[in-house]
Fold:
Amino acid sequence: MTNIPPVAGGKVFFNADTVIDYHYGQMAACDINTGKKLWHVGPIPLAQGGNPAISIPRNMIFYPEGDGAVWAMDITTGQVKWTYHGGFCVMGATGVASSMAIDERRGWVLGASDTGHIFVLDMDTGRLIRETYMGVPNWKPKDGQPSSGYWFPGASAMAIVPAQGLLYISGTDFERAWQGSGTKGREKLFCFNYAMWGNTLKQVWDYQFLADDSSEFVVKGHDPYQVSFYTLGSVALADGHVYYGSYNGHVYCFGDTFRK
Amino acid sequence: MRERNFFRLLMTAVIFSWFLSAVLITPQARATTYPWLSWRHDLQNTGAVPDRGYPTSAKLLWDKTRNNEPPLGTPARCSTPVSVGNDIVITTGNGGVIEARDQYTGELIWTKTYTWIPKPLDPPDTPPDWCQGSSPDLSTNLGVCGYTIDGKCPDWCYECKDKPNDCNNDGSDLVGLSLISPLHFPPDFGVFLTGATIDLDASPARIYFGTMDGRFFSLQLTDGTEVWQKQPWKEPGGPNEGRKWYDQKFAWHLSPPSVYNGKLYFGSFLPSFYWVFKAFPFLLDASGHSVPGWPSFDKDYKMYWVGRDGWTYCADKNTGNILWGWDPGG
Structure:
């Protein structure tokens, strides 16, 4: 299990691989005091588990799997409410990355796929509200492999600000990340507005991280399997600031001003 | 008279309200108002903050270079989630460097560097020739047998060597790989550190994080003093208790823990045995030698080794002692 287990209602939730030959994702709820398994769903073939997220008011848990699907389930019973396919990468064996967020005030759950696909779903129904692709806003899988401008979130988890409708997530570029560990790729931090009218998320800003020699190539690549899973960090939001640690060995703080 | 009393009462209420709002709304010195204590912000993993005022432009307030990671001598890669609490930013990642920096200035408060611990020894009952059936090849995943039968290479071996494999932990045939920990780096390399989870309920405040060489730590947030360290995969109640030599599981910790009600909950990635990158189960033949499971599924075998993703643990946050573990069946 390579995610952080959420806790709710006397249960701790584990989204794990159950493996004998390849990845089989399994979602389980255990009693928080004894570890006794209360329910599980799976194993699901080719589904490597990502980070679950919980809505307490809806008594639901949402989790992404490596087969490209988001699952929504009842916390108490483990009953599946709906699923949504977040998409495969055109070259990949994996789909939704370990990144989900909960906007309780709007009733939305947000996810991001290896395709760079960012999507906003209705928590109750799984209905798609709006979507975009990191760096290539109009790209769709049927369009084939874009030559450039295509970004993966990898293991980077999004952080959101419901009061402003903002979403922050980092990514690494497609055209270099899959050339293997001997090739370095780019790393960017993206900010989107996910709450505006329309069917897409609007990119608000991005920031290109550089190596100390000013090279854009900082992220060690990976083979065509969870391309950047081991590489990208995740932002922290605190007191109006965005904190991020980069593969280039720097720590950054973004913000309009300091409040103190 | 009544009007004057009412006016005094009103003024008192206004002044009291102003004072109360100043106490409640104005951030206290040296205390993050809206902290981000763990990878996904809270126990429900919402990834969402309750406040506002976050940047709508890429305005950089500070940029700090992390300490160098051994043995590369370059700034330590930060490939893990950042956490923030009590005015302190914690960063970890590849290269073994953990740093605590001031939230507002980015100035370094404390730092530590963790390097790989020595390879764990084989279990005492491990047969000396345990690796004769197949040895790992990370490039090809092919099995190489250290023997022939009647001078021929058996069909279950992809390749045969003229001499037996050296199964010793220090043997050259395994190129540094061990029975227990398949990808073990030398002790002069910084070890991957998971993101840290901050615990403000502890007194003094702490952080918790794990390492890729199987350790889990608790440090004091403000100065990095170690509270405890454990190796959960070796602990009583862990995955290896009562298991045979061929079923020993190591644990990479790749993600931070949740903290709730005095307990830690965290996972592991268990590259059991040395088959971590093998695509198929491995079998023991009648003589106890490992046999590649494919394409020889019809061979006479007696057991197989499996396992990739690992146990999840519940530990006492004050001691690190394992309270219970759950095996997902991997």
In short: The CA atoms of residues 10 and 97 of chain B lie 57 Å apart.
